[in-house]
Amino acid sequence: MLNLPGLPGRQQVGMLADQVRRLPTTAREAAVLVRAGVAPLTRPDRSAHALLALRRYGILGATIRIAADRDPGMLGLVDERGELTFGELDRRSNALANAWRERGIDETSTVAVLCRDHRGLVESMFACGKTGAKLLLMNTGFAKPQFAAVCEREGVSALVYDVEFTDILGDVPSSIPRYLAWVDDAAEHETLEQLIAGASDAPPPRPKSPGGLVLLTSGTTGTPKGAPRHVGSPFAAAQFLDRIPMRPGERILFGAPLFHATGLSQFLLALTLGSTTLMRRRFEPRATLEMLAKYRVEELVVVPTMLQRILAVDEADIREFDTSALRILFCAGSALAPDVGNRATELFGDVIYNLYGSTEVAVATVATPQDWKQAPGTVGRAPVGCTVRLYDEDDRRVCAPDTIGRVFVGSGLRFTGYTGGGSKEEIDGLLTSGDVGHFDADGLLFIDGRDDDMIVSGGENVFPAEVEHLLIEHPGIADAAVVGVPDDEFGQRLKAFVVRASDADLDVDAVRAHVRGNLARHKVPRDVEFVHDLPRNATGKLLRDALT
Questions:
Q1: Residue 494 half-sphere exposure toward CB, CA atoms < 13 A
Q2: Burial level of 173, CB count in 10 A (0-12/13-18/19+)?
Q3: Residue 11 predicted with pLDDT over 70
Q4: Residue 59 to residue 411: CA distance in whole angstroms
Q5: Of 105, 265, 366, 427, which has fewest CB within 10 angstroms of its CB?
Q6: What is the pTM of this model?
């Protein structure tokens, strides 16, 4: 009989029944982990140590402990300050955790981190796990009021930040301790380097509970919401590794920021696999190409706008860099336009892995290079442990191919509700992603847009993404967005905001003619406005509300 203290017998029986029902899926997940090298059959001791670390420190503290146990002398991280081995990262995060515990940071604390990608950010992540503190990853694109509002709502008890963000902290009470993660000159507050240098690097005492993690939604329509993540299952990694062939000991370059689920998920996976992670504080296309070549990088993690910026570099210049080691171009965070993915394939080979998900549902589907080649623009299929269904407006399941429906996702990594209260709509135990999409005849998923972005013009439904992707295919267009604006006759009409490619000679008539030649008449924008760039947040998501 299952015996879980504190739970009534009926609930214990229900949990046991759920575990029995999941046995086939669990077996498939275990097979994925063995195939990927996460759980080597020849080293059961290593698997046992990993499970013990996960139970003791949670996902944040365990990943560096697992990597250091695997090979402490292996290169673990490269940033603009140099190189650190896994052993050095483990000891430095031990020291930071010990210093924080001396200053009262423990299982009751919430540590907000406002940093770009560098060692200070990742060491703070590890230290939170080792002290049992909750980690709150802050968006580097925050305005001062947003930052203060999130800190108040989440009950932040300590701040870690880069000196460039000092002004953003202005509305946060000065009584909250502050620690500088990246500073070049004399610092007003204690720095992480000072804390690390002044503390023991011995393993800290086991916390009463593992450190938690709160990710924030993009906040494109208001103050970002907190979405807590509880990754206690050793099988969680299988949802990525089932469709993405990451392997131990590789080199992974991060363009996507670690405060976002796209970068964070791949970073934690890289550590679990004992892979070297490379990062810079700011994304720059040529610097990215240089690092790909210098370190013979096997995986590049980006959001679509970053990939567009790489492709904007002259093709001859791109080919000067040796990117032949690249096996995985992991792209997520927003829609990847077919033309962008196709051009990347022409330059780098069959390496596109296009992940679809959200902060709330986590992983939903992944398109492999084979999927992309078969159907450019697809987000692929659900990996092991995930379920995706489409429902129509009456909440009946949509089974017919090419029928647009609301996207609902089931995943072991899904969140359990916002920290400020409330959750997302559910049907049959599946969580809405907030998008609409369709399956093709082969079962590949396509996302047609947000369910609240649909434009109704003269009784016809138009999803902006279809028109935007077509516009980006034009050689004279670098970026584009389409919104609905009020119209006395049609209710709404389409307006396109277009960023010209460099040196492009493009006028309004040419833009409208391009759409008219490829799509139905009601999808042709009546208004076209040329702009220098489009408003996007730090992860590349379009801020439609800022377009008028």
A1: 32
A2: exposed
A3: no
A4: 17
A5: 427
A6: 0.86
